Amino acid sequence: MTHTPTNPDTPRPDESAGAPGAETSAGERREAERDAQAIAQDVVARVLARAGTARSEGATVHTVHDGDQLDLEERISLRRVGGLSTELEDVTEVEYRQLRLERVVLVGLYSGGESAARDAEVSLRELAALAETAGSQVLDGLLQRRQKPDPGTYLGSGKAAELADVVASVGADTVVADTELAPSQRRALEDIVKVKVVDRTALILDIFAQHAKSREGKAQVELAQLEYLLPRLRGWGDSMSRQAGGQVGGQGAGMGSRGPGETKIELDRRRIRNRMAKLRREIAAMAPGRETKRLDRKRHGVPNVAIAGYTNAGKSSLLNALTDAGVLVENALFATLDPTVRRARTEDGRPYTLTDTVGFVRHLPHQLVEAFRSTLEEVGDAALLLHVVDASHPDPEGQIAAVREVLAEIPGIADVPEVIVLNKADVADPAVVGRVQRRERRSVVVSAHSGEGMAELRELVAAELPQPQVEIDLVVPYSRGDLVHRAHETGGSVVEEHLAEGTRLRGRVDEALAVELERVAVAG
Ligand SMILES: Nc1nc2c(ncn2[C@@H]2O[C@H](COP(=O)(O)OP(=O)(O)OP(=O)(O)O)[C@@H](O)[C@H]2O)c(=O)[nH]1
Ligand SMILES: [Mg+2]
């Protein structure tokens, strides 16, 4: 995937319409060009080779614990079909997920220095994985060294013009920038590259929209999308109509983008605000249902273990390995959006629940964190947090930090003990595993695939969960089968024996149940 850079001295028709910074000296430009070319080719080769990307190479590998993966069938059947989507005409009729992202070129910046360049590459590879998860084909990837993003065009107009050439030569229809662009930057860049420009935030929102399944999840994503869209309304409508009309000139605004368009935008804004208010009410109304279930579990003394971590770290695989839940596992980012709760038991029979949560990503759009707040808050009263990390990723520490940044916002999280679960040990570099282990106070090394370390993980969970404190040995009359049932459900190592006068129970239960049992116990 190479491209021929154009002669930097060729004047570009609309460069003057671009941002300041367009007038650089020829020498400077040539140097920058050589730089960019070398970096671009290097990065492209690696991005497309997919070495150490956020996703592993190839198709998803399933284990027996993953079950039938019925969700996956459904997911695949929902895949975007190339060429079918229609261009947007009216922004209020947009279902955002219909954004046409089919053949994309990625761009990113780094501020100089070896480590900054490496980070930018990892981030760009992740962006490639995100784009592919959204259903597009990644054709090329470019990184520019630049101290700060250009306020006008993000890349600086010279580099942007070069990007336009790459876009044209590979036949891309979309550029994805590895950042959140200001509305004006997006528009200015679009003017130069002549195809749609999308940012990381929009891409992540697009994936969430494709993957949301529950009513609550869908409402949360739509709310986040509208929040993102609101300040961008004008530019969006403009550039869409410009593209639809095929007018690609610098100044050529499409029909309907002037005059009456202004009023229309006002109208659109109002409609969007109304819709957002409605969604907020809906989401608030749905929370109590979840809350009731949660309190129910709590009342029955069933502690919860929350599984959280970076996207594609193997959270769902781990849940499946621990419980045979058959939850969707996919070599894709954000496979899981709706929290799944599964029951499990410790070796000595104590029940607990495991919650699989939405994955995190660097620069998780704040609109999404807001929208998913009620879901995330459940992690706050877990008895234990299993923070799953993909130990085979080139930068596991960066992923841990990104996850903790989001987690830190959740009330109550500071009191939840956290264990770092270094997953994918079967393919990870032992040196990296060792390095992370030394940094983290509590960690366990596992592989959901090979089963390595799973016994240790189970033990760790068992040790961490509250132990029922009261030792019992009593006989419960047969009329109170319900209490016997509860003792089995919530107690530890409870054994029963059938006697003439009732059921003899031995084991440990919690305080409240012990009191009830004592009250009904028959003298033996
Ligand atoms: N080699 C290897 N691959 C694994 C292991 N655990 C999970 N995977 C793979 O990693 C990919 C992601 O697994 P998931 O369980 O879907 O990851 P997740 O953290 O739930 O991802 P999201 O829901 O997208 O955030 C899948 O292709 C799994 O087969 C492991 O121990 N070893
Ligand atoms: Mg998952």
From TrEMBL:
<feature type="compositionally biased region" description="Basic and acidic residues">
    <location>
        <begin position="26"/>
        <end position="36"/>
    </location>
</feature>
<feature type="region of interest" description="Disordered">
    <location>
        <begin position="243"/>
        <end position="266"/>
    </location>
</feature>
<protein>
    <recommendedName>
        <fullName>GTPase HflX</fullName>
    </recommendedName>
</protein>
<comment type="subunit">
    <text>Monomer. Associates with the 50S ribosomal subunit.</text>
</comment>
<dbReference type="InterPro" id="IPR016496">
    <property type="entry name" value="GTPase_HflX"/>
</dbReference>
<dbReference type="Pfam" id="PF16360">
    <property type="entry name" value="GTP-bdg_M"/>
</dbReference>
<feature type="compositionally biased region" description="Gly residues">
    <location>
        <begin position="246"/>
        <end position="259"/>
    </location>
</feature>
<keyword id="KW-0460">Magnesium</keyword>
<dbReference type="InterPro" id="IPR006073">
    <property type="entry name" value="GTP-bd"/>
</dbReference>
<dbReference type="GO" id="GO:0003924">
    <property type="term" value="F:GTPase activity"/>
</dbReference>
<feature type="domain" description="Hflx-type G">
    <location>
        <begin position="303"/>
        <end position="469"/>
    </location>
</feature>
<dbReference type="GO" id="GO:0043022">
    <property type="term" value="F:ribosome binding"/>
</dbReference>
<dbReference type="Pfam" id="PF13167">
    <property type="entry name" value="GTP-bdg_N"/>
</dbReference>
<dbReference type="GO" id="GO:0046872">
    <property type="term" value="F:metal ion binding"/>
</dbReference>
<comment type="similarity">
    <text>Belongs to the TRAFAC class OBG-HflX-like GTPase superfamily. HflX GTPase family.</text>
</comment>
<dbReference type="GO" id="GO:0005737">
    <property type="term" value="C:cytoplasm"/>
</dbReference>
<keyword id="KW-0963">Cytoplasm</keyword>
<keyword id="KW-0479">Metal-binding</keyword>
<keyword id="KW-0547">Nucleotide-binding</keyword>
<dbReference type="InterPro" id="IPR042108">
    <property type="entry name" value="GTPase_HflX_N_sf"/>
</dbReference>
<dbReference type="InterPro" id="IPR025121">
    <property type="entry name" value="GTPase_HflX_N"/>
</dbReference>
<dbReference type="InterPro" id="IPR027417">
    <property type="entry name" value="P-loop_NTPase"/>
</dbReference>
<keyword id="KW-0342">GTP-binding</keyword>
<dbReference type="Pfam" id="PF01926">
    <property type="entry name" value="MMR_HSR1"/>
</dbReference>
<comment type="function">
    <text>GTPase that associates with the 50S ribosomal subunit and may have a role during protein synthesis or ribosome biogenesis.</text>
</comment>
<dbReference type="InterPro" id="IPR032305">
    <property type="entry name" value="GTP-bd_M"/>
</dbReference>
<dbReference type="InterPro" id="IPR030394">
    <property type="entry name" value="G_HFLX_dom"/>
</dbReference>
<feature type="region of interest" description="Disordered">
    <location>
        <begin position="1"/>
        <end position="36"/>
    </location>
</feature>
<dbReference type="GO" id="GO:0005525">
    <property type="term" value="F:GTP binding"/>
</dbReference>
